[in-house]
TrEMBL record:
Record's keyword terms, sorted: Oxidoreductase
Gene3D superfamilies: Aldehyde Dehydrogenase, Chain A, domain 1, Aldehyde Dehydrogenase, Chain A, domain 2
Entry similarity comment: Belongs to the aldehyde dehydrogenase family.
GO-annotated molecular function: succinate-semialdehyde dehydrogenase (NAD+) activity
Keyword Oxidoreductase (UniProt): yes
An example Gene Ontology biological process: gamma-aminobutyric acid catabolic process
Alphabetical list of Pfam families matching this protein: Aldedh
Ranges in coiled-coil conformation: none
Entry-linked InterPro entries: Ald_DH/histidinol_DH, Ald_DH_C, Ald_DH_CS_CYS, Ald_DH_N, Aldehyde_DH_dom, Aldehyde_DH_Superfamily
Protein name: NAD-dependent succinate-semialdehyde dehydrogenase
Residue ranges of every copy of the Aldehyde dehydrogenase domain listed in the record: 24-483
Amino acid sequence: MSTLTQQFQLIDFDKVGLFINGKWIHEGSKGTFDVVNPSTKQVIAKVPKGGSTEAKQAINAAEVAFPIWTKLTAQERGYYLLKIRDLMLEHKEEIGTIISLEMGKAYTEAVGEVTYAASFLTWYAEEGKRVYGETIPASDASKRLMVIKQAAGVVAAITPWNFPIAMMTRKIGPALAAGCTSIVKPASQSPLTALAFARIVELAEVPAGVINIIVGATGEISNEIFESDVVRKVSFTGSTEIGKDLVKASAKTLKKLSLELGGHAPFLVLEDADIEQAATGAILSKFRNAGQTCVCANRIFVHKNVAEQFKEAFVKKAEKLIVGESIDATVQVGPLVNAEGLLKVEEQVQDAVNKGAKIETGGEKIDSLEGFFYKPTILSGVTSDMIIMSEETFGPVAPIVEFESIDEVIQEANSTQYGLAAYVYTRDLATAITVSERLEFGIIGLNDAAPGVSQAPFGGIKHSGYGREGGHQGISDYLEEKYISIQI
């Protein structure tokens, strides 16, 4: 680890700590846990494992900091967000390297994530200045009525491993801009990115207690967060199953929740689509982060009249993808995050093949590489009884299903409990509008495989959760409305 550590300014892999109340804690109450590089299966760091003790400390620190932070003007809070942003961009290659090492994202893509993450800080540094109230015409001449918006209070952000810095800034950017203070609980598969971010917070001289970052025993930390009356809102990105558990847990203290949960995105290639554009989009959507995104194309529906043409273009592009150790800047597809993720992909492919699917390319793990690698895979002849059509894959496998009519494909696309993202490729304006309106998903990529931007709302419907992150909508859940009636 010592040779590796020499690359970094923000974090020493041999000596990492939790960040609470502006201070580093190098011993966790629950011991330590290993962070494993999925490209090599080697332990790259031992991280202090926090639990109830650290969670209580973080909540208390955020509570003490709240009245100080929320009294700052929106411009003053925005100043700190921009300082964090500038430091992130200054160190984007280092942060990208850490992301790549700890969770396997291809290096170039990981650096791109840092830039994307910084965009949320830019947006909310400005959006915090636009938290407007209103005046209401009174029904009594002696009264004046007004509504103001104030910070919700202490908030908690529970972030996933697959976008370890973007999901963090997408949550705490609006929280801090609104005047809230925060506790961040990153995933144990990718804690080093969050701890490097904590160092940036320290360098930006953000007041102590405004951002606290703890990792470790998920159950204990979550219990403290959800039992606490101090924590007023929780934003969670993760699985639908855990999201439902958190809804139940929130009832005791009636916490506000934002939930960005699982997805099972349909990718519709209509008869009049630009096939080259659609195939390129499918590559980007499906194989980004080795298919480990909640909005990636999981079910690819192609009109039967263009199915062969699309399949040929799609396979040709997939076979050109460079798979390898994620830290290599030439690599486009890295490993799965762990053995469980690899096993799930293998089982879904085997189930599909057993039920009649054909492997067009890929279809096997890569034994010549040390880590959890699986070849970019395309399946044809896929039917609705295959597991891959009903369960989120979270891996580099693309099932192709042929269809004949728009009504048929919309029904198939909507026949899932999930409603996060969907993609439509067509050159007809009327079809584009009507199909987009009929799809039951919170995000539609219309001839666009990468619709996520900081200035637009991101979130799902049905079992994919509720609440929105990004856009002007993203700050609203961190605010409370207060009505003031004035007798004069």
